[in-house]
Prior knowledge:
Layout: H1 2-9, H2 15-25, E1 27-30, E2 34-37, H3 40-44, E3 48-51, H4 57-70, E4 76-79, H5 83-92, H6 94-98, E5 102-106, E6 111-115, E7 128-133, H7 139-151, E8 155-159, H8 170-180, E9 184-189, H9 194-200, E10 207-211, H10 223-230, E11 237-239, H11 245-258
Parallel strand pairs: 3-4, 7-8, 7-9, 9-10, 10-11
Antiparallel strand pairs: 1-2, 4-6, 5-6
Helix pairs in contact: 1-2, 7-11
Amino acid sequence: MRDILQDLLEEKISIENAEKLLRVNDILELDQIAKLDIGRENRTGFPEAILAQGKDHDDLLIIINGYCTKKNSNNLLITRLDKNDYNRLKKDLKHLEEKGYNLDYNNKAKILIISNESKNKLSTNYGKIGIITGGTSDIPIAEEAKVIAEQGGAEVLTSYDVGVAGINRLFPQLAKMVKEGVKTIIVCAGMEGALTSVVAGLVDVPVIGVPTSVGYGIGGKGKAALYGMLQSCAPGIAVVNIDNGFGAAVFALTIIKNNK
Length: 260
């Protein structure tokens, strides 16, 4: 980027060519395997994230090594990574740890965070996000949202297993979040997904519903929860796809950063 700007300053290239070169510089292509958005953090404040699901071991190694070698800064998130796959990756990434990179794996969220602490310090000055689950089975999706939100620079308050089956558990936890000044609340719920409507009817901040694939019979695979959240009469709800904790966190981050 510096070289391009220097050439522009010395009038060696036109402003149009400089713009094209800067756009090209934002994409890192790795052996036809992946095109990484290396400018994502500068553009959005959020690190690059790679979905492990559907990628084989060798492809993930190429992506991780390429990113850390060529970019050599900022965090890289590997999402939906099973524990067995992580253990295998860790053995092949010892050279990164020797170079000062940390490999932090969250087993519940199934996310690997690859960071170089000497170059990237997380900031928590954007604001607070609340995350609530209906039941214990919803926690993995909530943890995915929590990791992503924290990596994006938010402080996260959580309260799990406070669903409508024992709704008395919800009110003190929700009151605490409101008192702490959360700017948005993510609600992860399966079954009929009613918790999202209840929360939205009680607070004055945006609520993001995450239907989870927890349920059986007609509500199996999260469809009943999805339909229930989409059909809610409580205003102020946005709904993401089934089990999409990642998307909910990114949307929540967008809300709090724009309201800072």
